[in-house]
Write a structure and sequence with these properties.
Layout (H helix, E strand, L loop, with lengths): L4 H13 L2 H8 L3 H15 L4 E4 L2 E4 L1 H19 L11 E7 L5 H11 L3 E7 L3 H10 L4 E6 L12 E9 L1 E5 L20 E3 L9 H9 L7 E3 L4 H9 L4 E4 L9 E5 L6 E8 L6 H20 L2 H10 L6
Helix pairs in contact: 1-2, 1-4, 2-3, 5-9
């Protein structure tokens, strides 16, 4: 067989929907027809592209690469012969975003879904500051963070929806004494030095210290750190401390990422927006783009996939 654009659309639909049945419904096909099509594509490429989990199907590492290439080809194909009307001004969506690895994938997917939309992104660490920017009208939409029991607070001028609620994992030096543990008790890290990011105005690092207190200890050494992930991981690899991290983090050599036993810490990422600037259709496009981006992050994080297969499914899937 030769790959055609319809085959690529099937792959992207399965990846976005997280299931063959849901993809078939979106495409207007029967589930057996989509399943047969997927088998033919996998046979042609010579490797499985998706694997089944507790919450549906997700791309294999190879599948994630193929889906990303398929999206690029489809975006280029869909753009052939299309020009925005000369007199129509370009729409720029002003987006603020906290530290989230899903940002790049979200923006990329949103641009594919809405080729006439221009996106201007501002990096803002504190979710409290993101709320201020929304309420001031300085940005139109945002990806912010909050924590269970400490939901994002804002005025009626702003709305928000949860994208995903994820557990917090811990990054250790690869030679750490707990390197062989499938999961780590927070109390077992009582004597380790910690890298902790500053106050985000939404509950962090208070939730960290609360979890430590519940585990029966107060961190002895805390380094406040607000740098990029590469620099943080380099210091962890050198044995200078441990840090709580997002579970989708891809560790560099000499760093191990482990789940915390009992999942004492969780973080929720939310899409927030001004309804007077962002319509319902655009909100839905941004939500679908964000959840699709997160699925690909999960596909590239074997430590999270192994944990999720036992205990967790992505919110809203």
């Amino acid at each position: 067989m030769e790959l055609e654009l319809r085959h690529l659309r099937v792959l992207c639909a399965i990846a976005d929907a997280g299931g063959v049945g849901r993809a078939a419904t979106q495409l207007g096909y029967s589930q057996p027809a989509v399943s047969t099509q997927l088998r033919r594509i996998e046979r042609h490429l010579g490797e499985p592209l998706f694997e089944r989990g507790a919450s549906g199907v997700r791309p294999t590492p190879y599948g994630a690469e193929v889906v990303a290439q398929a999206r690029d080809v489809l975006a280029r194909a869909d753009a052939i012969g299309h020009r925005p009307p000369a007199a129509r001004p370009a729409r720029t969506l002003r987006v603020a975003a906290t530290n989230s690895p899903m940002l790049s994938g979200t923006v990329s997917r949103a641009r594919t879904r809405l080729p006439d939309l221009s996106v201007a992104v501002t990096s803002v660490y504190a979710s409290s500051r993101i709320v201020e920017l929304l309420e001031e009208g300085a940005v139109d939409a945002a990806i912010a963070a909050d924590y269970p029991g400490r939901e994002l607070v804002h005025s009626p001028a702003v709305r928000h929806r949860g994208i995903v609620t994820e557990p917090t994992f811990v990054a250790l030096p690869a030679r750490h004494r707990l390197r062989q543990s499938a999961q780590v008790q927070l109390a077992d890290l009582a004597g380790d030095p910690w890298f902790v990011t500053p106050d985000d105005g939404a509950g962090w690092p208070g939730v960290f210290y609360d979890a430590c207190a519940a585990a029966g200890f107060t961190p002895v050494t805390v380094h406040e750190f607000l740098g990029d992930q590469a620099q943080l991981q380099s210091m962890i690899a050198d044995g200078l401390g441990v840090s709580l991290v997002q579970p989708t983090l891809r560790p560099i050599p000499h760093v191990a990422v482990k789940p915390l036993a009992g999942s004492p810490l969780w973080c929720r990422y939310v899409l927030a927006w001004r309804p007077d600037a962002v319509g319902d259709d655009l909100v839905e496009a941004l939500m679908q783009s964000a959840t699709g981006a997160y699925r690909e992050l999960v596909a590239g994080a074997p430590h999270l996939r192994a944990w999720a297969a036992r205990t967790w499914s992505i919110a809203g899937t």
